[in-house]
Amino acid sequence: MALDQVKAEIAAAATRAGRPAESVTLVAVSKQQPPERIEAALAAGQRVFGENRVQEALERWPPFESRFGPLTLHLIGPLQTNKARQALQLFDVIESVDREKLAAKLASERTPECRTRRFLVQVNTGEEPQKAGVAPEEAAVFVRLCRETYELPVTGLMAIPPHDQPPAPHFALLARLGAEAGVSELSMGMSADFEAAIEMGATSVRVGSRLFGARPRPA
Ligand SMILES: *Cc1c(COP(=O)(O)O)cnc(C)c1O
Questions:
Q1: Interatomic CA distance for residues 81 and 61, integer angstroms
Q2: Which of 75, 126, 135, 215 has the fewest CB within 10 Å, making it most exposed?
Q3: Does residue 122 have its Cβ closer than 6 Å to ligand 1?
Q4: What is the residue with the minimal CA distance to atom 5 of ligand 1?
Q5: Has this prediction a pTM greater than 0.85?
């Protein structure tokens, strides 16, 4: 478990950026990881986790929470409208709001008892056709739509840069769009590039394989 090492690297990157280490949240991406690796992270004190599938998360987290106490769970993968209700019951943060139909569904399913407290808008910074997220030029307008029309507490932006490009320009773009949209949180940076993301303003980094080891190939 590379938890201490990753935390030290996060703190060092934050220091280089002139920010306190606590200004960056480590979201441990546990998708597809065997339960014993997750247990090791829990035993080491990690309390914030990211999953990309509602179903997988629903099976896995309630038992862990009854053993380890309340955790903070982030949904970082695409959300289908027919899973919106379940997602609102399990996740504290939904990072993948990316279209009006989903915003409308989340708004209509949201009740005061729902667990989700914050939403992030996913931006397709590389404008890749196969990737989720609003186009960069639509980000600010979409954030406003979510906040004003649907009364969703949108507090930040999330992005997954293209695999085959240097990530820094995408991090810079997301930071600029966040400022434009008037949101304070930036979820960017994964195992390979979280330090660069922090130096460019990330307030949370989503780290999977660096923490847990390579994901077993899904069957
Ligand atoms: C899987 C995943 C991650 C973690 O990726 P690693 O390279 O294993 O750190 C981060 N963000 C999202 C959206 C993911 O799907």
A1: 21
A2: 135
A3: no
A4: 208
A5: yes
